[in-house]
Amino acid sequence: MPIQLTVDGGTETQYMGDIHGFLRATYTPANADIPGVVSLKSTDNLPIEGIWSQLLHFTGHDLKAVILSGRSDSIINIGLELHMLLFKWLWPKIVKQAIDTFIRYWNGHRVRKQKEKILPSGVCPRDVYENLVQYGLTHAGIKVPKDVVDELRTRLPKSREECMRWVPASFNVQATAVYQALGCPTLSVANGWDIFTSMLAKLQ
Description:
mainly alpha, 9 helices, globular
């Protein structure tokens, strides 16, 4: 785990902060002078905010605009339960696929050389992560026993499965069968609404 956790002001980060604070106090009391959790406005979290433009440049699509186009182009009727169930089943998968692809690219791309920069430049992030000593760096992560993390997880009001479930289990089975019947088309931002339309026709 990191020495410091930086989050925006969302209420969903409360449990993260509480757990991080407990683990910090338990396993790294020597770092008490460094705040365990720092909460910023999302617009002040510059590394995260700045990466969205890079994602847009990489994918060639504005994810939000493409998703909203489903409504403006009358592909989805948000007043119909079936439409919303299918949307919640399909689009989280498409967004995750797009972001995962970008992450692989970003961690493997070579940044430009900057002579005055303190941190490594002219190399790809993954190479630095995997060869810290070569670049004169050390790993600052805090080792935490997995059984302790597992026990803390049980104290949360919802399981991971509940948090990551966007649709009822019965609909998931039904939609998965339809998706497979269509030949499991490749999920992408560009063809997301085409897949939605094809699946909807079979589900109705």
